[in-house]
């Protein structure tokens, strides 16, 4: 995928309210304007990268891009689970992410348990891959404010 790494940001909006948080995997949803600007060659699927809320600390994240086949959504979404325990919700804050690598395609599951187990595997894979020196270096490079606008050409 030639457009990776891909950097984007947007205000966190309310998602489908399905209680992901109760499952221990809250996902911060990006607004439609950000979903619509995704480059064509970023296919739907599960990705990993780095994330920062409101310009704060940088954390590992996993992201789902697509139609959530388990729920048969009709609207494409982009949602990030940040691998960090936050003290409170951050709806309305600016979420910045850099998407670095692809994990797997989106798929449907026979049960919610199987979906949750798959997401836990994704989190483990992201944890492991983001520890490589190559991705650790990008962590520092990508979030320096002076470089943001250079990256995606606006
Ligand atoms: P929604 O359907 O509105 O997206 P979720 O159950 O997915 O609801 O919860 C998402 C919200 O939880 C985020 O918008 C954010 O405010 C909050 N949140 C707290 N911790 C995290 C986290 N580690 N990763 C992502 N969102 C988090
Ligand atoms: N939804 C799906 O329908 N199929 C998937 O394969 C899938 N994988 C996901 C992987 C990750 C890392 C995350 C954060 C979400 C994923 N989702 C998937 C979205 C999930 O259905 C959504 O976050 C729900 O709101 C969880 O209850
Ligand atoms: Mg969500």
Explain the overall architecture.
The chain is α+β, with helices and mostly antiparallel strands and 154 residues long. It has one domain: Elongation Factor Tu (Ef-tu), domain 3 (Beta Barrel), CATH 2.40.30. 26% of the residues lie in helices and 28% in strands. It has helices at 32-36, 112-129, 133-142, 145-151, and strands spanning 6-11, 28-29, 45-53, 58-66, 77-82, 94-104. The chain has a six-stranded antiparallel beta sheet. The chain is globular. The model has no long low-confidence stretch (mean pLDDT 91). Magnesium ion is lined by residues 15, 20, 27, 29, 79.
Our measurement of the CA-to-CA distance between the termini, rounded to an integer number of angstroms, reads: 20 Å
Average of per-residue pLDDT values: 91
Percent range of helical residues: 25-40%
Low-confidence stretches: none
Bound molecules: adenosine-5'-diphosphate, riboflavin, magnesium ion
Radius of gyration: 15 Å
Q: Under CATH, the topology is which?
A: Elongation Factor Tu (Ef-tu), domain 3
Q: Indicate the overall shape.
A: globular
Indicate the topology.
Layout: E1 6-11, E2 28-29, H1 32-36, E3 45-53, E4 58-66, E5 77-82, E6 94-104, H2 112-129, H3 133-142, H4 145-151
Antiparallel strand pairs: 1-6, 2-5, 3-4, 3-6, 4-5
Bound molecules: adenosine-5'-diphosphate, riboflavin (RBF) and magnesium ion (MG).
Adenosine-5'-diphosphate is lined by residues 12, 14-17, 20-21, 26-29, 81-82, 84, 86, 89-91.
Enzyme class: transferase
Keywords: ATP-binding, Flavoprotein, FMN, Kinase, Metal-binding, Nucleotide-binding, Transferase, Zinc
Cofactor: Zn(2+)
């Amino acid at each position: 995928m030639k457009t990776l790494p891909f950097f984007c940001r947007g205000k966190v909006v309310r998602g489908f309210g399905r209680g992901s948080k109760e499952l221990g995997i809250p996902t911060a949803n990006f607004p439609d304007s950000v979903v619509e600007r995704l480059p064509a060659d970023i296919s739907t699927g599960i990705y990993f990268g780095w994330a920062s809320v409101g310009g704060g600390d940088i954390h590992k994240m996993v992201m789902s891009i697509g139609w959530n086949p388990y729920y048969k959504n009709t609207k494409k979404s982009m949602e990030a689970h940040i691998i960090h325990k936050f003290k409170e919700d951050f709806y309305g804050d600016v979420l910045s992410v850099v998407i670095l690598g692809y994990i797997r395609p989106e798929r449907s599951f026979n049960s919610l348990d199987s979906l949750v187990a798959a997401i836990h595997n994704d989190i483990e894979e992201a944890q492991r891959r983001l520890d490589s020196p190559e991705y650790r270096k990008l962590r520092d490079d990508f979030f320096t404010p002076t470089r943001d606008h250079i990256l995606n050409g606006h």
